[in-house]
Amino acid sequence: MSFIEITQVSKHYGAFQALHDVTLSIPKGEFVTLLGPSGSGKTTLLKVLAGFEPVSSGGVLLEGRDITRVPPEKRNFGLVFQGYALFPHMTVEDNIAYPLRVRRRPRGEIAERVGALLKLVQLDRFAGRKPHELSGGQQQRVALARALVFKPDLLLLDEPMSALDKKLRHDLQEELRAIHRTLGTTFINVTHDQEEAMHMSDRIAVMNQGRVEQFDTAHALYRRPVSRFVAEFVGKSNIFAGRIDRGGGGQLFSGPGFTMPVPDCAQGEALALLRPEDVEIAGQAPMDGRIALPVTVTSSTYSGDRALYTLSPPTGAPILAYGSARSGVHPDGAALFAIFAPENAIVLD
Amino acid sequence: MSRVIFWSTVTFCTAFLALPLLLVWPLAFNTSSFLTYPLEGLTLDWFHQVLTQPTWVNAFLNSLKVAVGAMALALVIGGLAATGVILVPRALQVVLTGLFVSPLIVPSVVVGVAFAYAFGRAGIGGGYFSLVLAHAVLGAPLVFLSVLTSLRGLDPNLDLAGASMGASRSFRFRTVTLPLALPGFAAGALFAFITSFDEVVVALFLADPGSTTLPIALFAGLRDRLQPSIVVVAVLLSLMSLLFLALLRRLQMRVAAPKS
Ligand SMILES: Nc1ncnc2c1ncn2[C@@H]1O[C@H](COP(=O)(O)OP(=O)(O)O)[C@@H](O)[C@H]1O
Ligand SMILES: [Mg+2]
Q: Name one Pfam family in it (chain B) (predicted).
């Protein structure tokens, strides 16, 4: 049995349903991320886990124990808020000591734990400062230390990086990952940033309109998305609309301007997904069974190691493709071929 | 053009508000015992007289006692009301707020008559106790509003954060809500104090000879003998108000500061 079991949780705000039958099981010690666009219900699910919002139906189990109706102060979960919610009238040290004071720990133990956490988040030198005297990144680390100091069973983080600039965000992602590895506490992180989710998580729950669309590893989400939403939200994608029919010797997918064999799946209208790195760009069409579509370059973005091209085929939506940029970038308007192997295409239902 | 309008408006309003005060103040230093211009000479005798005359000193002490008592009581009533109202659902908040603020809206004369009658029937008419009670009722809405405003300004996540760390509601209130709302309590207390200190209408209905407050003494003095000593009291009261204004200003800055 899993550490946390969320079973068929629904949440209504009046007539509006913010969560639809959410079911997730989270193993102990994992770093799980709830990923989804703004308004998809991530914070709502986190609040249900923290105990701030009662569920409309369904339940939450912690190691087999029903905690659905346990109040937040009895759950022993650490929580890092989106805006950090540091106590402005207390120093960094007092903020971190707060959960231990609540628990009436002896003075010596408090000093020792606070010292250890300050070291863990590298804020030893700032113990006496007030929150408003710290940078955003430092405040975030105080919030993290405060949520971890009492050895919670579970750490919940609501978009902890969203207020930080990109460089800092990257460093803190590394740090958070390292802290997770050191402590072994179960982390549930919320973000709308798919890169952040992919970098940090053992597993990712992709949320859309109050539903969990897919709960899987980053690799599985990227290579085997179960829906168009997941395919488009996680990484860059090319999606071809077409239909699957029985042809000579197997199933055939007919997309805009090409036909390719696909493994067994339901016939009829279908979508095929192709990741940009699976599309090759060349001046000539190869003769090896791969699909080659004539395209012209509409735009390109050069990033040193490679270039991302937007290519327009005669029919259908533009195609994204990565190309090597070692010997220069193809100019806009250049006539080329977009080449891909049918086995790299993923059929979506 | 807009600058001209701005400055002329400011000048006019300031003159309208401050000129009567500025005109009367110099009379406190006039050697003549009549309240007339031109000044005959400068003296501090009237100040000496006010500060030594038992009528004024007693009235001042009475006012101080009543104001401090009313402030303390208003602080408890208004503070409790505000911390309670913030916890109830929105619709109920509107109703309760209206109720708690109503003493501000009812005319003082009506309040004065009502108290005089009610206290008389209850057998506690006249004297300090009734004055403190009545002024506390007038001051409580000010404390209530001031505390409510500072509570509303608090980030609700602070309380949730406290709960997630295991703190009970009362522990959170003591360690987070109360310290952060303290400037609101202090500002409310000041308002309540000032309100009581210069309240005259209700006091006229309730005070007995032994508990004459400063505004009543001033009022009586105005009718009996128009002397510069009245102006002296007015000057002293103005200075006190200015001091309180400065204090309030500092408190408001403290309320605004932690949000940054
Ligand atoms: N207290 C509330 N009352 C009504 N609707 C709410 C409330 N909280 C959230 N919602 C709605 O629920 C949906 C999901 O919100 P939220 O969980 O905050 O999304 P996310 O964190 O993924 O951006 C949103 O459409 C939001 O408007
Ligand atoms: Mg959110």
A: BPD_transp_1
- C-alpha span between B248 and B192 (Å, rounded): 12
Domain boundary residue, one of A176, A199, A233:
A233
pLDDT band at B259 (very low <50, low <70, confident <90, very high): very low
Q: Give the global pTM.
A: 0.81
Which ligand does the CA of A41 lie closest to? 1
- Condensed to tens digits (0 to 9), the pLDDT of residues B132-152 reads 999 999 999 999 999 999 999
Burial B103-124, CB ≥16 within 10 A → b, else e: beeeebeebbeebbeebeeeee
Say if residues B180 and B154 touch (Cβ distance below 8 Å): yes
For B189-231, what is each residue's pLDDT tens digit?
A: 999 998 898 888 888 888 888 888 888 888 888 887 777 788 8
Structure confidence at residue A276 (pLDDT): 93
> What's the alpha-carbon Rg for chain B, to the nearest Å?
22
Q: Does residue B56 or residue B175 have the better pLDDT?
A: B175
Instruction: Kindly report, residue by residue over A214-238, the tens digit of the pLDDT.
Output: 999 999 999 999 999 999 999 999 9
Give me the interface pTM, i.e. the ipTM: 0.83
Of the three residues A208, A233, A258, the one that is the final residue of a domain is A233
Separation of alpha carbons A340 and A278, rounded Å: 6
| Of A95, A89, A93, the residue nearest A128 (C-alpha) | A93
Interface test with B, best of A53, A67, A89, A133 (most B CBs within 10 A): A89
Q: Average model confidence (pLDDT) for chain B?
A: 86
Domain that holds residue A298: 238-348
CATH code for the domain in which residue A73 is found: 3.40.50.300
According to DSSP H, which parts of A72-227 are helical?
92-102, 107-120, 136-148, 166-183, 194-200, 218-223
> Would you call B155 and A98 a contact, using CB atoms and an 8 Å cutoff?
no
Nearest to B131 by CA among B116, B145, B144: B116
**pLDDT value for A27:** 95
CA quadruple A215, A221, A227, A228: dihedral, nearest 10? 140
Task: Using an 8 Å CB-CB cutoff, list chain B residues near A98.
Answer: 162, 165, 167, 175
Domains and CATH numbers, chain B: 53-259 (1.10.3720.10)
User: What pLDDT does residue A322 have?
Assistant: 92
pLDDT score of A155 = 96
